[in-house]
Design goal:
Strand order of the largest sheet: 1-2-3-4-5
Shape: elongated
Number of helices: 2
Helix content: 40-55%
Largest sheet: 5 strands, antiparallel
Strand content: 15-25%
Structural class: alpha+beta
Mean pLDDT: 96
Order of helices and strands: HHEEEEE
Length: 120
């Protein structure tokens, strides 16, 4: 069964979400740079294929954390997460995107990001 969050429950997870997203952003940049260097020059100051695989594994662990906590990961560049919730009897997603400081947005489940509104 999918987890349903209250606004307070989702907000209580935000310090962990932001910390993992910060790690993910750094790993994402390292992997992009390493991959580009290996493809274009055949070598990289960041390492080689083993280091790339290690970066991918660390990214995978972070991504699994979101699912393990019932948080929907909708994108990784930028990172976009949704917390399933119910507001006034309506199925919604509490919505946070990389770079925002607080969880203050939601959208109806069927509308997605385009239907984003500020939390009341």
């Amino acid at each position: 069964m999918d987890r349903i969050f209250s606004v307070d429950e989702a907000r209580s997870l935000m310090p962990d979400v932001r910390a993992r997203v910060a790690d993910l952003v750094a790993l994402r940049a390292d992997l992009a740079e390493l991959s580009y260097d290996l493809e274009s020059a055949g070598s990289s100051p960041l390492g080689g294929i083993p280091e790339g695989k290690a970066l991918e594994a660390r990214i995978g662990e972070i991504l699994l954390w979101f699912g393990d906590h019932g948080i929907e990961l909708k994108g990784v560049a930028p990172v976009l997460v949704d917390f399933p919730a119910v507001l006034d009897g309506v199925s919604v997603r509490l919505c946070w995107i990389e770079g925002e400081t607080d969880l203050v947005w939601y959208h109806r489940t069927e509308l997605g990001f385009a239907g984003r509104r500020r939390l009341p």
